[in-house]
Amino acid sequence: MEVFPPLGQDVLFFWIPIIVKQQMRFSLIDQITELKAGESITAAKNLTLAEEYLQDHFPGFPVMPGVLMVEALVQTSAWLMRYSEDFRYSTVLLDEAKAVKFNSFVKPGDTITIQSKLQKKNDESTWTFKASGNVGETNVITAKLILKQFNLADEYPSIASGDAVQTESIKTLFNVLYPQAESAKS
């Protein structure tokens, strides 16, 4: 028995974030600089004082929260997963974060360069990545991440039309983050 009634296109944007609870609603990646399908990705995030969360973390000593550093690694790895699978799945979520090590702070004015490498495909839907972030030559974070991909229709058939909406939104953002992909298609 389905929990959700059939939904029209106009209310999909209400239900999708509720169902996909873990997915961030903002991007912690400013640019994808290198991408090798099925292998690796490099991305960058420029931290500025304009980041709203820095007002409270911490007053007088603003630094990027550790959980957002992890999320930047997750988002970078998710882009590799999506691109490698030709955007077949609408949703990619963190399943597990292991061996997370914070080595230094990321401060306003810093650019964190994030690298993620596919370690293995556990199965079709679950992949393991080794990811790290550096500011210049200084390593600030490392982690082993396990990500899971799926379509909304697989879990919630009543909102299957949300897959197309979500996928188009993801592709649009991807083309902003990695415009080389769009020009390669032309």
Automatic annotation (TrEMBL):
Keywords, sorted A to Z: Lyase
Keyword Metal-binding listed: no
Region forming the signal peptide: none
Family annotation (Pfam families): FabA
Domain of life: Bacteria
Record GO terms (molecular function): (3R)-hydroxyacyl-[acyl-carrier-protein] dehydratase activity
InterPro entries tied to this protein: FabA_FabZ, HotDog_dom_sf
Protein name: 3-hydroxyacyl-[acyl-carrier-protein] dehydratase FabZ
Organism of origin: Thalassoglobus polymorphus
